[in-house]
Design brief:
The protein is mainly α. The chain has a single domain, classed as lambda repressor-like DNA-binding domains (434 Repressor (Amino-terminal Domain)). Helices cover 69% and strands 0% of the residues.
Length: 101
């Protein structure tokens, strides 16, 4: 299936949703997107520091599996977890709240 086919399928499914279903979809999508973006940033920072997932896990005091899930966007990290990861990478957490577009 090509990208345009997937886009068409997505458009059809969204068009068939009720307003409540669409709102739930948008909330779930936004949450997954944020988890994925945070995971990508953690991975990039870990790699820039020259650390393996196992190295980072030891520094954070957790398992490699937790770091793997975090980097894959499989879990939404708490601010406490992000702070522990940032400290282990000798970085700081910066949260910015701004109007959505």
């Amino acid at each position: 299936m090509t990208t345009s086919d997937w886009n068409s399928l997505k458009a059809e499914r969204l068009a068939a949703m009720t307003d409540a279903e669409r709102e739930e979809y948008e909330r779930t999508y936004a949450k997954a997107k944020l988890a994925s973006e945070v995971g990508e940033r953690v991975r990039a920072a870990r790699e820039a520091a020259g650390l393996t997932q196992r190295d980072l896990a030891r520094r954070v005091g957790t398992s490699q599996a937790v770091i793997t899930r975090l980097e894959a966007g499989g879990v939404g990290a708490t601010l406490t977890t992000l702070q522990r990861v940032a400290t282990a990478l000798e970085l700081e957490v910066n949260v910015e709240l701004r109007p959505s577009i």
